[in-house]
Amino acid sequence: MSSWPEDVGILALEIVFPSQYVDQTELEQFDGVSAGKYTIGLGQQKMGFCSDREDINSLCLTVVQKLLERHNIKPSEIGRLEVGTETIIDKSKSVKTVLMQLFEPYGVTDIEGIDTTNACYGGTAALFNSIAWVESSAWNGRFALAVAGDIAVYAKGAARPTGGVGAIAMLVGPNAPLIFDRGIRATYVRHTYDFYKPDLTSEYPVVDGKLSIQCYLNALDQCYQQYCKNVSKKLNSEVDISSFDAVIFHSPYGKLVQKSLARLVLNDYVRTTKEQRTQKFSELIKLNNIKLEDSYFDRDVEKAFLNYSKEIFDKKTSPSLLIASQVGNMYTPSLYGGLVSLLINKKVSELAGKKIAMFSYG
């Protein structure tokens, strides 16, 4: 191409999820737990599930076909297709190759991309790879498709109400209405066993719940701090929670998202000087000596920052939880279900020119 493509991002979105669901109040009764444990404690209202007529392939086929039809995209206009999923039904054959059934009848077989697997982060990796392809010397002028889909199920126990299912397709190209910033995103990767699937005969993961929450919040801390440094270095600008018009998170369950927004405010608090805290956080001055690494399960700190950030949460994050509260944790599509929720909750005039922070985890 003769020039660098401008404003690369998401041109169109399509999401699908099953019509079947479990009401979380009924699940509370069935499990014999106290009323509100799932609906209030976790912040979940319903949990979608698949019948035996659906699998990861059918979900992704449906969402891609719907996107192509709704936006009148010809199969020949797609040059790259990547799928992020951790729902593995074949140890060799990718979901991407199954999706080629939508393109082969039109003589289209020259589509790059494969599947990407890394727990719930696979969808974000597929999206980043799609953007990178459009911005690279390999780009041939066609669109990229990033697909994220999963069926999240857990064995009987505390984690079961945090399941869910869904798939999302994102059309990527230049001159997009949803543009991704260049050169300032932050990444944090480490080796840990908080969530993994070592038994290939079982669809259930092995989860260390407490460790998983700590890993999630630690990754959030590290990414936010790195992002602030990147913006300061590249744009010579300072960042805090007021820099964003909306803040969206990967959503294992709604309550963790609310705690995560409060966590960003805690990061802002820790990053300020004692003098600045007196001015900006006068209500929290009693927590002057708090350290991030000591605060993951500190109930007093959590409660203080949840209360302090409630208005910010209601304005900037709560609108993104519509689908997550009604469908559950969709794994790889979770973050982008939050984006869809935000978009359908706002008027176009309210979205134009706004900045959205997004945190992906897996």
From TrEMBL:
Q: Which GO terms describe its biological process?
A: acetyl-CoA metabolic process; farnesyl diphosphate biosynthetic process, mevalonate pathway; sterol biosynthetic process
Residues annotated as binding CoA are: S212, K255, K259
Q: Which reaction does it catalyse?
A: acetoacetyl-CoA + acetyl-CoA + H2O = (3S)-3-hydroxy-3-methylglutaryl-CoA + CoA + H(+)
Boundaries of every Hydroxymethylglutaryl-coenzyme A synthase C-terminal domain copy? 178-362
Report if keyword Lipid biosynthesis is assigned: yes
Q: GO molecular function of the protein, one example? A: hydroxymethylglutaryl-CoA synthase activity
Q: In which pathway does it act?
A: Metabolic intermediate biosynthesis; (R)-mevalonate biosynthesis; (R)-mevalonate from acetyl-CoA: step 2/3
User: Which InterPro entries does the protein's record reference?
Assistant: HMG_CoA_synt_C_dom, HMG_CoA_synth_N, HMG_CoA_synthase_euk, Thiolase-like
User: What Enzyme Commission number(s) appear in the record?
Assistant: 2.3.3.10
Keyword terms: Lipid biosynthesis, Lipid metabolism, Steroid biosynthesis, Steroid metabolism, Sterol biosynthesis, Sterol metabolism, Transferase
**Hydroxymethylglutaryl-coenzyme A synthase N-terminal domain mapped to chain residues:** 4-177
Where's the active site on this chain? E86 (proton donor/acceptor), C120 (acyl-thioester intermediate), H250 (proton donor/acceptor)
Q: What does this protein do?
A: Catalyzes the condensation of acetyl-CoA with acetoacetyl-CoA to form HMG-CoA. This enzyme condenses acetyl-CoA with acetoacetyl-CoA to form HMG-CoA, which is the substrate for HMG-CoA reductase.
Q: Which family does it belong to?
A: Belongs to the thiolase-like superfamily. HMG-CoA synthase family.
Which protein are we looking at? Hydroxymethylglutaryl-CoA synthase
Q: What is the lineage of its organism?
A: Eukaryota, Metazoa, Ecdysozoa, Arthropoda, Hexapoda
